[in-house]
Backbone:
């Protein structure tokens, strides 16, 4: 029986939807099992901030009635999770912070779209304070851990979502990405994570998030599941599922191992380098041309900082009791407030960076880069670091993802294998604006050879 339950847990988003449509499992049974897994793993993984037990079971009962009536909405009856930076009616949105936050009276647009597709929302997942760090730890909720090795972080800031999917608690989850916050935890938990072109997935009720840096997106174990969830979030019918099922044309792929300028020391871990280079060879074997290249990142970080820290300041200004914030958050709030006069200039400079870095796509179709510079660091070591040491830790581990947030262009993390100690690593497929179809198609082709979804923690 336990083996059967495990098979259903790791059947994937589309797989669970098929089981429901065929009547081989009920939405109530599937949701009850997900809620049991949440409860059972909270003491070790701590992936969730809020659990919607009663509400989710009511939604599952309604889904079963719709299934019986012949409704075949794409996610009908499938349990999913949402990062706790996104409004769900009836719950607060604390974004990793301590304090008594007001209960929201309306869903965010992405939640509305999930409900319309029939998904059952089992809870809100943990995220570090205001999503600032690539590790999911905080005084508000404790430490979220990596199911591949609980001594290590799953990454952040969508670390709770990544931990939940990697552990088979849910088949897929929604995260958000402002500097790699989907792709980094995807890399460190053996998942596919998609950061879409800015504007593809709505941010309502907010007109934009973190001054255009942040967008919502999927984390899943397969490209097909990530594509299905992205179609639902973006309202694109079956555009990305079709791309995932289509063989890509032969592509010219640029292998880019150079690090964007960060002003702090960073070094690409040899294990990660070897994993990304190995994937380059796999892509060559699949018929693509892979060439070494170096995007001209320049000083794009000067554009990133006012928008990212300004976004932290914006969010910190909404917190009911700022005295409860982490001292590092308060320091970033002060810096972000000082940098607000540069926000308009940062937005005006964005086309310059798009032209400068975008020239690489006159030479190659897709970039292949590391997603992170290191495998997942150990957990429970970041909480007491001062701000400057936290910044050093972030830059040392995660220097590759954030330029694509400034550019507003898409990027997909694909698993790149495991270290000798069994820790996941990732690689990034990146392209110009609106190139999701190519990236998804290429990722799916790679998945057909790599079979990363056959690995479970």
Residues:
């Amino acid at each position: 029986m336990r083996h059967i339950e495990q098979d259903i847990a790791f059947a994937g988003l589309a797989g669970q939807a098929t089981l429901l449509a065929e009547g081989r499992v009920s939405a109530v049974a599937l949701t009850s099992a997900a809620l049991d897994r949440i409860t059972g793993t909270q003491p070790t993984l701590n992936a969730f901030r809020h659990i919607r037990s009663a509400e989710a079971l009511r939604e599952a009962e309604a889904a079963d009635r719709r299934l019986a009536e012949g409704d075949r909405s794409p996610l009908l009856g499938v349990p999913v999770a949402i990062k706790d930076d996104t409004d769900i009616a009836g719950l607060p949105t604390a974004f990793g912070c301590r304090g008594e936050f007001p209960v929201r009276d309306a869903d965010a647009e992405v939640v509305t779209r999930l409900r319309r597709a029939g998904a059952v929302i089992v809870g809100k997942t943990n995220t570090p304070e205001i999503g600032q760090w690539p590790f999911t730890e905080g005084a508000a909720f404790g430490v979220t851990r990596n199911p591949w090795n609980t001594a290590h972080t799953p990454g952040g800031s969508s670390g709770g979502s990544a931990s939940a999917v990697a552990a088979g608690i849910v088949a897929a989850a929604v995260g958000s990405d402002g500097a790699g916050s989907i792709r980094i935890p995807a890399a460190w938990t053996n998942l596919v994570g998609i950061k879409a072109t800015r504007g593809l997935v709505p941010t309502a009720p907010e007109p934009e998030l973190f001054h255009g840096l942040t967008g919502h997106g999927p984390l899943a174990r397969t490209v097909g599941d990530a594509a299905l969830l992205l179609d639902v979030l973006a309202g694109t019918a079956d555009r990305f599922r079709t791309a995932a099922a289509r063989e890509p044309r032969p592509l010219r792929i640029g292998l880019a191992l150079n690090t964007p300028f960060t002003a702090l020391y960073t070094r690409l871990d040899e294990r990660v380098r070897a994993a990304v280079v190995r994937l380059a060879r796999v892509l060559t074997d699949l018929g693509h041309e892979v060439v070494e290249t170096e995007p001209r990142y320049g000083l794009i970080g000067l554009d990133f900082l006012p928008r990212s820290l300004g976004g932290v300041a914006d969010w910190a200004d909404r917190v009911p009791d700022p005295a409860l914030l982490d001292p590092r958050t308060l320091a970033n709030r002060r810096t972000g407030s000082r940098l607000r006069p540069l926000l308009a200039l940062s937005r005006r400079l964005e086309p310059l960076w798009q032209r400068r870095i975008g020239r690489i796509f006159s030479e190659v179709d897709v970039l292949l880069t590391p997603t992170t510079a290191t495998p997942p660091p150990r957990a429970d070591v970041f909480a007491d670091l001062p701000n400057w040491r936290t910044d050093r830790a972030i830059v040392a581990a995660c220097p590759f993802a954030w330029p694509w947030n400034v550019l507003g262009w898409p990027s997909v993390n694909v698993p790149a294998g495991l270290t000798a100690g069994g820790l996941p690593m990732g690689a990034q497929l990146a392209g110009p604006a609106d190139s999701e179809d190519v990236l998804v198609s290429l990722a799916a082709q790679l998945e057909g050879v790599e079979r990363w979804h056959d690995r479970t923690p």
User: Anything to note?
Assistant: Residues 10 and 275 are 25 Å apart (CA to CA). Residues 53-68 form the longest helix (16 residues). The chain has 16 helices and 13 strands. The radius of gyration is 20 Å.
